[in-house]
Design brief:
Layout (H helix, E strand, L loop, with lengths): L1 E2 L7 H11 L9 E2 L4 H11 L4 E6 L1 H11 L5 E6 L5 H5 L6 H13 L3 E9 L2 E3 L2 E5 H10 L2 H7 L1 H15 L7 E5 L5 E4 L1 E5 L5 E3 L2 E3 L11 E6 L4 H13 L9 E7 L1 E14 L2 E21 L9
Parallel strand pairs: 1-2, 3-4, 4-16
Antiparallel strand pairs: 5-6, 5-16, 7-10, 7-15, 8-9, 8-15, 10-13, 11-12, 13-14, 15-16
Length: 305
């Protein structure tokens, strides 16, 4: 599945990737051009018994492909084509699709297809995280400038983060309540990230490491900020950039190995799934789904040192 609108997808790269994959495999290229396309096409491929469906685009495209084949015998292949490519880089893939395809092919040739767990929120799967509150408000602002995302990338996210902080998000009233596995109820949630993998994202080449406990073979990790004080948030995120995950603090609720979690409020709050803003809601129900999808684990190509 190719999202030709993704930041790193070009006609040349698509040809190179196709040729490399087609050396020892029968390959069909399908282009997606609107939300939901990749899920529908991936589901149809799984129904036809296709061995591997590859998501070549941004994290949103990958999410749709994973959703389409979850619970089937078809395996998920990953190629980075977006601006950040969180899941692909978490797997150890280079951020350049032309380089990454050799790692993917090595995994396919080795038939290294293993089941992994996914998160699910209100019935929708996610590969690496769901953001609630401030995080989602930033993603919504970025998507409103979608035509600039391909060219500006991280500077656009930084600009959106600052403007949302200053004018676009209430920093004085809690936005949701939280209850479920891993701790007492939280009455004053401002900003939560529910992780299926770590890191949460990348700032350039630097991983934003929120919790090493978030892995593909364990339950979810939920990290909630109970304040919007700049010193508290920036202090925790600065620590995350140094590695080892955020450190316990009075303004944080940290839960690991979560199987079920609920965020709710009488007033709607924003949320995003794997980098796609999905609007607002008054209730989110999270579950961890073990062995939800089979993944092609990339491997070092034979000619690599």
């Amino acid at each position: 599945m190719v999202n030709s609108f993704a930041s790193s997808v070009t006609a040349r790269n698509t040809v190179v990737v196709h040729r490399r994959l087609a050396r020892n495999n029968d390959v069909e290229v399908v282009e997606t051009n609107r939300r939901g396309h990749a899920t529908r096409f991936a589901h149809d491929a799984a129904r036809r018994g296709i061995d591997v469906v590859i998501g070549y685009g941004g994290d949103g495209t990958l999410n749709e492909v994973a959703t389409g084949i979850a619970g089937t015998e078809t395996s998920l292949g990953v190629l980075p084509g977006g601006s950040t490519n969180v899941f692909a880089r978490t797997l150890g893939l280079p951020n350049d699709p032309v380089e990454a395809v050799d790692f993917l092919v090595a995994g396919i040739d080795a038939a290294d297809f293993r089941p992994i767990g996914l998160g699910q929120v209100n019935g929708r799967y996610f590969c690496f995280h769901t953001g609630i509150g401030y995080d989602a408000a930033v993603v919504q602002k970025v998507e409103r400038r979608g035509s600039l995302k391909r060219w500006l990338g991280h500077p656009l996210f930084i600009s959106a983060g600052l403007s949302t902080w200053l004018w676009g998000y209430d920093k004085h009233q809690p936005h949701f309540r939280l209850h479920g596995d891993g701790g007492p109820d939280v009455a004053d949630g401002y900003f939560t990230v529910v992780l299926n993998t770590n890191p949460y994202t990348y700032l350039g080449n630097r991983p934003l490491d929120l919790s090493p406990a978030a892995t593909l073979n364990r339950g979810l990790v939920a990290i909630t900020f109970t304040t919007m004080r700049a010193t508290a948030i920036l202090g925790s995120l600065a620590g995350a950039l140094r590695g080892g995950g955020v450190k316990p603090a009075d303004h944080l609720d940290i839960r690991t190995d979560v199987a079920k979690l609920v965020a709710e409020n009488d007033t709607p709050f924003p949320y995003q799934v794997d980098g796609d803003a999905l609007g607002t809601t008054t209730r989110l129900e999270f579950v961890h789904v073990p062995d939800a999808v089979k993944l092609v684990f990339p491997a070092k190509p034979p000619n690599e040192d």
